[in-house]
Design brief:
Elements (H helix, E strand, L loop, with lengths): L1 E4 L2 E8 L4 E5 L9 H6 L4 E6 L7 E2 L6 H15 L4 E6 L1 H12 L4 E7 L14 H10 L3 H13 L3 H33 L5 H5 L5 E6 L2 H4 L3 H9 L5 E6 L6 H4 L1 H13 L9
Parallel strand pairs: 3-4, 3-6, 6-7, 7-8, 8-9
Antiparallel strand pairs: 1-2, 2-4, 2-5
Length: 272
Amino acid sequence: MRVELPDASIVYDGAGEGEPVVFLHGSLCADWLTPMARELTEFRRVVIHPAGYGRSEDRTSGAGVPALAAHCAAVLAELGVPRAHWVGHSAAADIALHLAYARPDLAASLVLLEPALPQADDEPASAAMPTATAAAKAGAWEAAFYIFLTGVCGSGVRRLFTDRLGERGLAEAVASSRYFFTRESAAFARWQFGTPQMNAVPAPALLVVGGGGARLGTPHRARAASIATRLPHTETLVVDDLTHAMPLEDPVLMAHIVSEFVARHPLSDPAG
């Protein structure tokens, strides 16, 4: 299914019945959340591929977070869904967060898996992104892909992708690295979302971080902690041994986490 917009053409998939849960995948791979979404059979599942990923098209020089959130709102309007639960991973967690701020009427709850931004003052320095960016500037897209994901997900990332998504899924993810490094990362860097915006988000939120990030020295736990101090209705869950690749590392467990949180914040709940 596809919705045509002036600045983008957005593809989305839907399946199942029940309360709607929208899945927004992170950068570099259109199928980060696909195995997890398949597990949530008790819900109406909507998987949106943001502009530039899968078969979705970005008709700009790089869609920013507010525009991507507006695209998601347009998909819900196309489906006739007035309100949903939102699951976002990495950069897409920021899309879900912005949508809950700009369109609070659309967000019953948020499950944010290691948001990519905003940065935290006390986060550890990580060489993954600058080193990968340098490789990308030299045109080494595959090297950039592995440098970044090895830095935040660990050395087994290639096998993880092939085990969960197959060789074709891995190849498609590597191909997406060109869009990430040339357009998406710069557009996301322009996103401004501070304490006033955080404080204004009414939806209950679950921040999920991987315990394995401490071993890798990733910044996501510090970033989640910083967000948690400013979102009014937030819980934080640390999942031992998992990393930034948590949706692929254990899709069954991640589906259970989403299901349990969503069940506590049904659409009929006026607080959600």
